[in-house]
Design a protein that fits this description.
The complex is a heterodimer of chains A (75) and B (375). Chain A is of the alpha+beta class and 75 residues long. Chain A has 2 helices and 4 strands; from the N terminus they run βαβαββ. In chain B, helix 7 crosses helix 9. Classes of the chains: A alpha+beta (75), B alpha/beta (375).
């Protein structure tokens, strides 16, 4: 999937994946896509809920070798 | 202002003592709705930490100034962040060390009775999940019943009272939590007893536990008598300890009864459940103190935090023991059941030895309340 920016949040524990995602998102334009890599299992539910509450769209997610990958489109 | 740390043990004390506490739970809404820290005099406010990244000004009016405040999250990181932000606003608050993960794993030992000739029986209250396990001690020997996977706690406790664990029992094949029984038996050389009808698929060797088996603990000989009482599972077995305590497993609880559906055989097992509760237990002395393998709601805790009641009292008060009509009983335990415990099939397979998940995976499988009962 095409992303405008990739955020490496691997090895970071909650709340850092979301803190960094929020920061990275601020640097994108509406409609652009941020790809996030994380290893904290809690990131899945939290990113989905955060995206929803912030008006963003979680387009896709997958797991690859224990790395959780997310694609979020800025709202 | 400073940020304080509260341990699961500290919070457990507040639950037992019915103290007041204001819990600011910063997990996401669905996690909070599913499972939270329960206390009779606890108040709650739930807002996910990621709503607070820009500041806590918006929630300051939700937080009381006259109560102790505890910030809680899944693992502790986010609760520290939020606690520090509240502290910057001038509040004195605490965060829960280890978060809900630690809360789920905390066991509080409570002595529930003296046995003959200096013997003792302890209940280990897993306050966050409602699981209850037991240690029977006599003259330097100990038996553990329905152990959780936090095996170090039993080993250290036995050590601290100078006892050696010689027998380990599971009343049935558990579906709501991962048993520590086999692990404790391996570490101590104790005998591991399982009801064979629940163990047809297990991948390890065990000592078959049959109706009428008597196991003696210590030189003083505290008797543990097995009583076949199927219904929650086909093998479910109860224990009568020292002719005074009835360890009822997941068959009978204080304010509810077992559910027969966790192996997918509700219709087949409902008759067994009825016979166990309405015939087999009926024949026992009403003076036996019932010690179940779970509690469901915090109101079931006694003053000292233990969970127990006389069998006679349960026959008078527990709704599930007072349904005359068999069809009505059948309906209660097979229809409109609460949701099944999280990952219950995987948990059963782990307890059979078929799956060997790592610790983090085990933790994840056990997340949430246990839901082994029907009211």
């Amino acid at each position: 999937m095409e992303a405008n920016k990739i955020l490496d949040a691997k090895g970071l524990a909650c709340p850092m994946p979301i803190v960094k995602t929020k920061k990275a998102m601020n640097e994108l334009e509406s409609g652009q896509v941020l790809e996030i890599h994380a290893t904290d299992k809690g990131a899945k539910n939290d990113l989905a809920a955060w995206a929803k509450s912030g008006g963003h769209e979680l387009i896709s997610h997958e797991v690859e070798n224990d790395v959780l990958k997310f694609w979020i489109k800025k709202g | 202002m400073t940020v304080n740390v509260m341990t699961s043990k500290d919070v457990t004390k507040k639950v037992f003592d019915k103290e007041e506490l204001f819990i600011l739970d910063v997990r996401n809404e669905s996690d909070f709705q599913d499972w939270k820290i329960e206390g009779e005099n606890f108040d709650y406010f739930n807002i996910p930490y990621f709503e607070l990244l820009d500041g806590v000004e918006g929630i300051m009016d939700k937080i009381p100034s006259d109560k102790e405040v505890l910030v809680v999250c899944a693992k502790e990181g986010s609760s520290i962040m939020v606690a520090e932000m509240l502290s910057d606003e001038g509040l004195t608050v605490s965060y829960l060390k280890g978060g809900m993960k630690a809360w789920s794993e905390h066991l509080e030992p409570v002595k529930v009775g003296d046995l003959k000739d200096g013997g003792e029986i302890y209940q280990f209250v897993r306050i966050g999940k409602g699981c209850l396990s037991y240690m029977v001690v006599s003259n330097g020997d100990a038996a553990v019943i329905d152990a959780t996977r936090m095996t170090d706690i039993y080993l250290e406790f036995a050590d601290s009272i100078g006892a050696k664990i010689t027998h380990v029992f599971d009343t049935h094949l558990h579906a709501d939590h991962i048993s520590g029984g086999r692990n404790i038996a391996e570490k101590t050389g104790a005998t591991y007893w399982l009801p064979p009808k629940d163990a047809t698929e297990v991948t390890f060797s065990y000592q078959p536990l049959e109706d009428g088996n008597d196991v003696e603990i210590g030189n003083v000989k505290i008797n543990i008598h097995a009583l076949y009482s199927p219904g929650h599972t086909i093998g479910s077995t109860s224990f009568i300890v020292d002719e005074r305590f009835l360890l009822s497993g997941d068959i009978l609880f204080i304010d509810s009864i077992g559910r027969p559906d966790l192996a997918g055989l509700a219709q087949d097992w409902v008759g067994d459940l009825r016979e166990s509760l309405y015939k087999r237990y009926r024949e026992l002395s009403e003076d036996l103190i019932v010690l179940p393998a779970h509690f469901m709601i915090i109101e079931e805790l006694n003053e000292d935090g233990s969970v127990s009641e006389k069998l006679g009292t349960l026959y008078a008060k527990n709704h599930g023991l007072n349904i005359e009509d068999e069809n009505e009983f059948r309906k209660l335990v097979t229809e409109n059941l609460p949701p099944q415990p999280n990952a219950y099939q995987e948990i059963r397979e782990t307890n059979m030895g078929k799956l060997n998940p790592d610790e983090e995976k085990q933790r994840e499988m056990e997340i949430g309340p246990n839901r082994c009962a029907v009211r």
